[in-house]
Amino acid sequence: MHYGSEILSRTIDELMKLPGIGRKTAQRLAFYLLKSSQEDAVALANAIVELKEKVRFCVQCFNASENDLCTICRDVKREPALICVVEETNDLLAIEKTSEFHGLYHVLQGHLSPLDGIGPDDLRIRELMQRLEKTEVREMIIATNPNAEGEATALYLMKLVKPLGIKVTRIARGLPVGSDLEFSDEVTLSRALTGRQEM
Amino acid sequence: MHYGSEILSRTIDELMKLPGIGRKTAQRLAFYLLKSSQEDAVALANAIVELKEKVRFCVQCFNASENDLCTICRDVKREPALICVVEETNDLLAIEKTSEFHGLYHVLQGHLSPLDGIGPDDLRIRELMQRLEKTEVREMIIATNPNAEGEATALYLMKLVKPLGIKVTRIARGLPVGSDLEFSDEVTLSRALTGRQEM
């Protein structure tokens, strides 16, 4: 693709490496940056550099953190005997937004996916097991995604952790709140039926 | 929103300033950058800084360029008497991809939009008029978008340029190649009818 400028072309190529950004979007972003103020563009570039320099992963739960321990792991008001296992930091953020969970997290940084060559050693499972050995854990909530990979990962973890005598739970799968029974898919609906709870 | 890291939060805010990037996408991009290699992230940041430093607009046609004149304006094989007026550099790229046009361009850098307070003085119209006075132009093709703003801009330019004795044409509007008559909207279909050509 001929953009009339080597640098413009390179910027578009770099933007296209980002997930979910195709050529058209990368072009739009690059032209936006070209027209935007010098300060805005430099602020973005600096934020990216600083992000890589200063933000790493919490040594305990693998959430994003500027220190060895993340703000959640350092929070003394949180319950350390309750651990919620999620796939990614995004999932942790989604749960934090509910304000329903007051324990700690463990971010796996992915899910099992044999087809993509991602096995247990590629996730933070070894670190999770070491953590469960060191600390007294009452319950482990598995909050991996309710899709094929997430369910497989949940099953794998359950088999690994249950023998340690720790209570292992899985987030409920069923009909989304506010949805219509009529328009729900059959897998979700059958899940909602088998997972029914007494009122 | 509490991300557990001030820098992460700032990076997400900066990414959200980009067009079409909401909070969820900005989060996904930031977490991707966090996990990606140091080189990739720095390459992106450097490309953005260099883009702002070295890429500007061609003094003749306002296409992106690293020099005073862009590669198209400098190309002696292109026909200077044929000028294609487009709204944005993206549109120029789209036309270049067809390899059908061998003249020069004029990038307006926007379209007339009174509701957004964008009038003729906010576009590169004055520069276009100066250019038409200085050079011998045989035909001006108006290739603004076939929507309300693009049509208004085309009409405005036509009224301005036609008195100069220059042939002014508009790109054809009709049914997209490969589409179905049945599924086309009525405005497009009526355009296709009035714009019919003898075979």
Short structural description:
The structure is a homodimer of 199-residue chains. Chain A is α/β, with parallel strands linked by helices.
Structure notes:
2 copies of one chain form a homodimer. By secondary structure, the first copy, chain A, is of the alpha/beta class. Chain A has 2 domains: 49 residues, Orthogonal Bundle (Helicase, Ruva Protein, domain 3); 122 residues, Dna Topoisomerase Vi A Subunit, Chain: A, domain 2. Helices cover 44% and strands 13% of the residues of chain A. Chain A is built from 8 helices and 6 strands. In chain A, the strands form 2 sheets. Chain A has a 4-stranded parallel beta sheet. Chain A has a two-stranded antiparallel sheet with strand order 1-2. In chain A, helix 5 links the parallel strand 3 and strand 4. The longest helix of chain A is centred in the first third of the chain and has 17 residues. Chain A is globular. The model of chain A has no long low-confidence stretch (mean pLDDT 90).
